[in-house]
From TrEMBL:
It comes from Lamprotornis superbus. It is a multi-pass membrane protein. Gene3D superfamilies: UbiA prenyltransferase. InterPro entries: Protohaem_IX_farnesylTrfase, UbiA_prenyltransferase, UbiA_sf. It is found in: Membrane. GO terms for biological process: heme A biosynthetic process. Keywords: Heme biosynthesis, Membrane, Transferase, Transmembrane, Transmembrane helix. This is Heme O synthase. Its main location: membrane. GO terms for cellular component: membrane; mitochondrion. It comes from the Eukaryota. PANTHER family: PROTOHEME IX FARNESYLTRANSFERASE, MITOCHONDRIAL (PTHR43448). One of its GO terms (molecular function) is protoheme IX farnesyltransferase activity. Coiled coil: none annotated.
Length: 248
């Protein structure tokens, strides 16, 4: 709705339904509201208020902060990364009802992953973003674009190592995930060094399988409830809580 005039100048967005006039702006806004408002209500009443609040905050952050920032400052990428990091945090709060270390770790992984993913993607779309008037790192700060992508590839290694320290996974997780984290870091270094479309495409396509693979390994190496119970780490620390968790 906000970006129709700018999307019409970009090859990747000029065929979107709003740009082509296939649907009206009023219909688009009504559809968004009919999804967003009941969605937040369902999360709040059917799951818990914390998850509903995070959902509402994310809609606000995307529409009112990230979207206008795209035409004002390269800070939009960092704000957009927060938007992408919140959904897994919502999954954690939906399951546990709390915003604890596990939620922040999942959010941190998604946050860092988005920089090699998007910066590599935007590198091949620099001309398009320039025509649309969007302030992307790849357009205005190409060197920073590559450096940030590499830094966050390396950050994924650190975040994977933090997981067992926080007692979320076993120590097998950072070990098993190290090869794929090293591989995306290698491609991030190639992108930083070569600064061409070939290296950016390889990094982008690697990011598509890297994230699901990393999360799958994380899932298989997660600490079970019974392991934490044996250590007395369950919330509340009581025998009654452990019994409740075991019951269907």
């Amino acid at each position: 709705f906000f970006e129709v005039p700018f999307d019409s100048n970009m090859n990747r967005t000029k065929n979107r339904p709003l740009v082509r006039g296939q649907i009206s702006p009023l219909l688009a806004v009504c559809f968004a509201a009919s999804c967003g408002i009941p969605g937040i209500a369902l999360l709040t009443l059917g799951v818990n208020p914390l998850t509903g609040a995070l959902g509402a905050f994310n809609i606000f952050l995307y529409t009112c902060c990230y979207t206008p920032l795209k035409r004002m400052s390269i800070a939009n990428t960092w704000v957009g990364a927060v938007v992408g990091a919140i959904p897994p945090v919502m999954g954690w709060t939906a399951a546990t009802g709390s915003l604890d270390a596990g939620a922040l770790l999942l959010g941190g992984i998604l946050y860092s992953w988005q920089f090699p993913h998007f910066n590599a993607l935007s590198w091949g779309l620099r001309e398009d973003y320039s025509r649309g008037g969007y302030c992307m790192m790849s357009v205005t700060h190409p060197g920073l674009c590559r450096r940030v992508a590499l830094r966050h590839c390396l950050a994924l290694i650190g975040l994977s190592t933090v997981a067992p320290v926080l007692d979320i996974t076993t120590w097998t997780f950072p070990i098993i995930s190290l090869p794929i984290n090293l591989y995306i870091s290698y491609l991030g270094f190639r992108f930083y060094r070569d600064a061409d479309r070939s290296s950016s495409r390889k990094l982008f396509f690697c990011s598509l399988w890297h994230l699901p693979m990393l999360l799958l390994v994380m899932f298989t190496c997660k600490k079970s409830v019974l392991e934490k119970e044996d250590k007395g780490d369950l919330p509340g620390g009581g025998h009654e809580t452990a019994m409740e968790i075991r019951l269907p």
